[in-house]
Amino acid sequence: MNNMKWIILVLSIFFSLDTIFAAQKETDEIHVQEVYKTIDTLELTIDIFYSKETITDLNNTAIVFFHGGGWAFGTPDKLFSACERYAKMGIICFCVDYRLSNDKGTAPHNNITPIESLMDVKSAIRWVRKNSDRFNINPEKIVASGQSAGGHLAISTSIIEKYNESSDDFSISCVPNAVMSFSGTVNTVEAWCDHLLGKRRTEIWNISPFHNLKGDLPPMIQFHGMQDATVPFWTIEFFKRETEALGNYFELHKYPGRKHYLGKGNPKYSEYFDDEILEIADEFLRNQGLIK
């Protein structure tokens, strides 16, 4: 065999091994799905993202994501790319399926309101904390995050004490240790929430973070477009002023010219946000001692 053939053989072996190692690296990111809650015959699922390396570590941080869609639409997969990003950074990520107001099932699921959505995400936080040992998660390092209505739900887990599923274990807290909100609703009176509540619209004040503010809340960060017509920017400014007056930490990043979808034109994260925004979110997590 001449020298040229030897070189070709060696190169082919090298590139074959490189392909194998690259494939192995890709499979190191694991995505599984489990049921976190059952209501009658309805099973609600939670998608879990982590790496083989992270799962063997101790003291892991968890981020629990809630998708947007006005409490009536949307699917968890909208946040899968964000979960994959954070999983590669060594964070255990969870993406939650919760009941929506457009669900058309048999009773009692045909009268779903944002109240049921809130009950579900509180159950999800409790499930993650209950299962923290399985994933080597520090139960004091759980972050709630969401976009739009999902942002409202993330914030509400730390503020709204009312509305809990009777089957939940109330000895386990549903309050996260930090909150990241992207275009999140903080004042449900200024949203179309009253329409979704139907006969229960008088309870709209009970699920409005602004109207239930209190002290000793976990640190929060909010990203918001100043031209957001879905969740008016002024509602966020009012929330920031009032929550800080109570001694809470609330970091607001405002974006002139941007509307409700902060990543508009960049489909990587379903237009919810972009890498520049997530890098600021990373710094928030570092400052809170949640990631290195």
Strand ordering within the main sheet: 1-2-4-3-5-6-7-8
Q: Note the main sheet.
A: 8 strands, mixed
Shape type: globular
Rg result: 21 Å
Which percent range fits the helix content? Answer: 25-40%
Order of helices and strands: HEEEHEHEHEHEHEH
Low-confidence stretches: 7-27, 104-109
Separation of termini? 53 Å
Q: How much beta, percentage-wise?
A: 15-25%
The number of strands is: 8
Please report the number of helical segments.
7
Structural class: alpha/beta
- Rounded average pLDDT: 90
Can you describe what's shown?
The chain is an alpha/beta fold and 292 residues long. Helix content is 32%, strand content 21%. The protein has helices at residues 3-27, 80-88, 114-130, 149-159, 193-197, 233-245, 275-287, and strands at 29-39, 42-51, 60-66, 92-96, 137-147, 178-182, 220-225, 250-255. The longest helix is centred in the N-terminal third of the chain and has 25 residues, at 3-27. The termini are far apart.
Outline of the structure:
32% of the residues lie in helices and 21% in strands. The protein is an alpha/beta fold and 292 residues long. The N and C termini lie far apart (53 Å).
Topology:
Layout lengths: L2 H25 L1 E11 L2 E10 L8 E7 L13 H9 L3 E5 L17 H17 L6 E11 L1 H11 L18 E5 L10 H5 L22 E6 L7 H13 L4 E6 L19 H13 L5
Parallel strand pairs: 3-4, 3-5, 5-6, 6-7, 7-8
Antiparallel strand pairs: 1-2, 2-4
List keywords for this structure.
single chain; 292 residues; alpha/beta; 8-stranded mixed sheet; 21% strand
